[in-house]
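Ticket #4471: structure output looks truncated?

Reporter: J.K.
Steps to reproduce: submitted the chain below (179 residues) through the standard prediction queue, then opened the result file.
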Amino acid sequence: MLLTMSRAWSLELNAVLDSVAVTPPGRVEFHEERHNPMLQDPIILTGYLEYLGAGVLHKVIQTPFEEALLVNHDQVIIERDGEVRRLALGRSRSLKTILGAIEAILSGDSKKLESIFEYELSGTSDAWTVRLTPISRRIAKQLSSMQIKGDDQALSSIRVDLETGEWHVIHILRGDNKQ
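Returned output as attached by the reporter:
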């Protein structure tokens, strides 16, 4: 018990992120739950996430519908039902913040993460949680918090809580997500 407590207190954000950093290209399967206060049941999505390099994230939803989202630096490209939409990422600061946090975690960039969020790290190297709250008051009006969970091998989940009461949790299915 004493060993576990000392390991918990010795956790540092740099070490946690280093242990789960992904060398691009990295790909993992996911199971996502989207909870909205206006809906009785959550929406369940499955697919895969890819970290293709600095500034490039790809999310492919395979069920219950097919959709692909490509974040390519400051642009989001959404493909669904044969149609392609392009959005400037700068139009949604909260989305840009969420994606920036995910990329910082995947790349192991604690300095970038700390520039966007205040954080609270708890647990042990075998089961840790990082709770992130936006530093910007403007972002905090939309994004309440993010919670990242993992262990010394990989991420296990990313939860996003919005100020509207809506929340999403992406469960990372274990696979070859470290190169």
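Triage note (M.O.): checked the attachment and the full token line is present. The helical segments are 2-10, 13-20, 93-107, 110-116, 137-140.
Status: closed, working as intended.
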